[in-house]
Amino acid sequence: MRDSDSASEFPSSRVGPAPLITIVIPTYNLESYIVPCLDSITSQAFQDVEIIAVDGESMDLTRELLEKRMIDEPRLTMMCNGRIGPGVARNIGARKATGSYIWFVDGDDEIAPGCLAEISQRLLAERPDVLLINHAELRDDWALDVGQDDALLRREDSSPFALAGRPWLLDVGLVSWNKIVRREFFESIGAEFVRDWPHEDVPVSCELLLAAQRLSVLSDVCYYHRKHRPGSATGSGPRARHFEVFDTWRLVLERNQARLRHESDGLRMGPEMYQRLFQRSIWHCTTILDTAGYVAKPDRHAFFNQIAALYAEYAPDPNRLPAGFRGVKFWLIARQSYLGFSILDPLNKVRVRLERLVKSDPS
Predict the structure, then answer these.
(1) Rounded-to-integer distance, Cα 257 and Cα 242, Å
(2) DSSP string, 238-271
């Protein structure tokens, strides 16, 4: 079902030809962050962008700050709706976009100084379906930490390719903000974010990576992600919020099982790619379980059981375990051993600490 197009719009005064990039920003109660986010965009020398903010009925000053900004910023448009969630907000913004490319930027994050000029050069030179960008983690003290995809992306700065040629890139973060997407491609594959959140961007991220014939990587840091903001969708909300991840991965895996059987929409899915997609789904779920504060202690066993059920339902035949520590986790999940799984991570952390001590001992 498509989302409602009934959002009220506060039109900008932008005139002239369509921009190269449309930046879509979902907002909800971001009064402390939306101004720095907008400043990081509008202060750049590269100006060929439009900005569409889609507000989910903020109860703080977010909407007032956006209205004030629109007075002096003709490239900014604001649309308002009910409490729709970030996925639906992105869908609404994408349908309003006129740019050749769409970049979904979260309103509590920022983009890196000068990145728009560099991004535009790559887009114009290569015309990719999807440009993957590198990011850094923005701490509360404004210091930057290396992003989780840094090592993976820095080995892949190359000409456009399809995912089949670089299947390990399926391990990049399955988030909306690390991909700049050609709008016609986005529309041609019927891409839409799911309504429930968090993890609403997993199905779209997978679909974009799998369907793109021209993927490109920009290894320079272009995005500053605020990972642990109080009140964020991943860090707060209903206690069972992270159980949503199983519905999103079932959507992805069922769709691609059909492709594996050649019963779907023309996008072929080979056994090796499905194996990687399956492993990505299980690893994502275990990462959520292992992240402090995501799954409440009384819910951990139930969450593990959901991972084991996902594993049993969608494991390929034949199934190949990944190497190393990840493979041990998968082996325990396949055997539904919650006890073994629950003690494995603490033991591994002790092992890593001991190895570091040995390496640091000059004797």
Answers:
(1) 24
(2) STTGGGHHHHHHHHHHHHHHHHHTT-SSS----H
The C-alpha angle with vertex 73 and arms to 69 and 79, in degrees rounded to 5, equals: 65
Amino acid at 50: E
- Of 314, 303, 243, nearest to 277 by C-alpha is 314
In terms of domains, do 192 and 247 share one? no
> Which residue's structure tokens are 């700050």?
65
Structure letter (DSSP) for residue 163 = G
Alpha carbons 250 and 79: distance in angstroms, whole number: 32
CB 172 within 8 A of CB 223: no
Helix, strand or coil, per DSSP, at residue 145: strand
Total of domains in the chain: 2
Q: What is the three-class DSSP state of 123?
A: helix
Residues 362 and 311: beta-carbon distance below 8 Å: no
**Are residue 273 and residue 158 in the same domain, yes or no?**
no
Say which residue the tokens 């197009």 belong to. 5
CATH number at residue 206: 3.90.550.10
Q: Does the reported pTM lie above 0.85? A: yes
Cβ atoms 35, 110 nearer than 8 A = no
Half-sphere exposure of 167 (CA within 13 A, CB side): 13
> Is the same domain home to 158 and 54?
yes
In the chain, what's the furthest Cα-to-Cα distance?
70
Query: What are the tens digits of pLDDT across the range 290-328?
Result: 998 899 999 999 999 999 999 999 999 999 999 998 999
- 322 is in which domain, residue-wise? 241-360
Q: How many CA atoms lie within 13 A of 288 on its CB side?
A: 25
H/E stretch holding 363 reads none
pLDDT in tens, 76-103: 999 997 889 999 999 999 999 999 999 9
Same domain membership, residue 282 and residue 137: no
Name residue 161's beta-bridge partners.
Answer: 215
β-pairing verdict for 130-138 and 144-146: antiparallel
- How many CA atoms within 13 Å lie on the side-chain side of 137? 12
